[in-house]
Write a structure and sequence with these properties.
Elements lengths: L2 E7 L6 E7 L18 E6 L2 H13 L3 E6 L5 H11 L3 E5 L7 H8 L4 E5 L11 E4 L4 H15 L1
Parallel strand pairs: 3-4, 3-5, 5-6, 6-7
Antiparallel strand pairs: 1-2
Length: 153
Amino acid sequence: MIYIGIWRRLYSNVGLSIFLIPRMNKKPHNKRGSKIMQQKKVVIVDDAVSYAETLGEFASRCGYEIVIVDATAKSVEDVLAAVQASGADAAMVDLQWGNNTNGLGCVRRLTIPALLMSARREPPTGFEGAFASKFDGMDVVVSMLGQLLEQVS
């Protein structure tokens, strides 16, 4: 597998980070090299659209079809309707939208597998689902998404 380096700005207070992105053929392959029959569609829900776009680009290079839902100033019901309309197989949802922690309520109401993401290092108290810290890097977040999808397949 060939790797290329790409510079991306995550947040202004985090600075620049380097991510290694696998260069995929037109059709993604699983670990054993056989062709995957269908790409999994994943919706990314975040109020930081630039982060969501960068994460979406990384995830698409790893073989996922990506839909981004901008959660800025939207209610949980609006986001749930957008996720439902997307027909996604899984969701990656940011914990905090603006000053609210609407992501937690959204994840609890989704009917598809969901990965809760946060700039915090630890999951919220009482949350027992799939959680990823954005500080761990996009490769870890996308890897956790893959593990989540494997568990439900």
